[in-house]
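Contributing new records

If you add data, match the layout below exactly. Sequence lines come first and carry their own label; structure lines follow with theirs. Keep one chain per record. Anything else will be rejected by the validation script.
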Amino acid sequence: METSKNHFFGDMSVMLGRSMRHIFRSLDTILTVCITPIAMMLLFVYVFGGAIQTGTDNYVNYLLPGILLMAIASGVAYVAYRLFMDKQKGIMERFHSMPIARSAVLWGHVLTSVVSNVMTIVIIVLVALLMGFRSSAGVLSWLAAAGILVLFTLALTWIAAIAGLSAKTIEGASAFSYPLIFLPFISSAFVPTETMPSVVRAFAENQPVTSIVETLRALLSGQPAGHEIWIALAWCLGIMIVAYLFAMRAYNRKAA
C-alpha cells in the first residue's frame, strides 16, 4: 500500500512538473488572466465606484473578493484547453501506455491550475493594494480566505477538467468558463443584493458566488464571517466532489 501511494505521488509530481514548465515557458497566460479582472477593478473603482452605494468608505475593499473569483473562473479555462490538447495530440494515450498511475496525469493539470491561480491572485491583490485596498484581518483570517479561494479553484478546475475531456473542439473546451466568469455580476460582488429586482435578488442571494464573496469580504475586513462561511464551504466542497466524480468518470472512459 505504501509503495502504491509513493508511486502515485511520485508520478503526480512528475506530471505537475511537466505542466508547470508549460506555465513558466509562457507566463503570458498568467498575465492574460490578470488583465481582464484588473481592468474591471480599475473601471469599477475609478469610473463607477463614486455612483455605487455599498455602505463602505473604500469600494476596492468591497470589490476585491468578486474580482478574485472572476480571475479564478477565467484561469481554469486553461486547464480545459491543455487537457483537450493532450487528448487531441495523443499525449494522454502515450502516458496511459507507460507504467504510471493513470490519475496522476489528471492531477498534474489540476494542481498546476491551483498554483497558477494562486500566482494570479497574488498579482491582483498587489494591484488592489496600490489602488488603496487595506485589510485589518489577522493571519488566521488571511489563511481562511486563502483556503476558501483554493477550494473554489479546485471546484472550478474539476469542472474545467470535465469540459476538456468531453469537448469535441478547442472552442467547446473553453466556452464553459464564460457563464462562470459572469456569474459574479449577478451576486453581491459589485453591488448589494438589496438594490436588485426581487427575482434577480432571489437568484443572487442563493447562488454560490454571493456566499463565497460575503465570506471573503468578512474575513479580509477582520469581521466574523458568521454562518456564511459554512454555506461557502458547503458550496465549494459540494461542487468539487460532484465535479471530481464526473471528471474521473470522463477520464476513465478516455483511458479505457
